[in-house]
Write a structure and sequence with these properties.
The chain has 2 helices and no strands. By secondary structure, it is mainly alpha-helical. It has a domain of 30 residues.
């Protein structure tokens, strides 16, 4: 596993910490889950342009 640092606006950090505490999971875990959800909604790479 790789460690990384991110910067969050204060309000987003407060909301994320509250969300994690209510579910008894770590901030790191909701961050991982959020990134997985985000990446699951978008293709791995942009689609190739169609040529006529």
């Amino acid at each position: 596993m790789t460690r990384t640092q991110i910067q969050l606006p204060d309000e987003l950090h407060r909301r994320a910490k509250r969300f994690a505490a209510e579910r008894e999971i770590s901030l790191a875990e909701i961050t991982r889950r959020g990134i997985e959800l985000f990446l699951g909604r978008f293709p791995e790479s942009p689609p190739e342009p169609k040529h006529s």
